[in-house]
Amino acid sequence: MTIFKTTLKRLFRAKSNILFLILLPLIFMLIAFSGSNGTPPLKVTVIDNDKTAVTEGIINNIT
């Protein structure tokens, strides 16, 4: 536990580290999640040469 506390103190000593460790990942997550809302589903073409129950199940899960 002491090593963990010491490491955290060293990481957060410089204010630029706070930016890179906390703010930038949050900004990237917000951009990624906001970009995926409201987009129409992609159309996928599947060619099933095998025609087994397994491939039929996979195709049903995709569509």
UniProtKB/TrEMBL annotation:
Record lineage: Bacteria, Bacillati, Bacillota, Clostridia, Eubacteriales
Name of the protein described by the UniProt record: ABC transporter permease
Superkingdom assignment: Bacteria
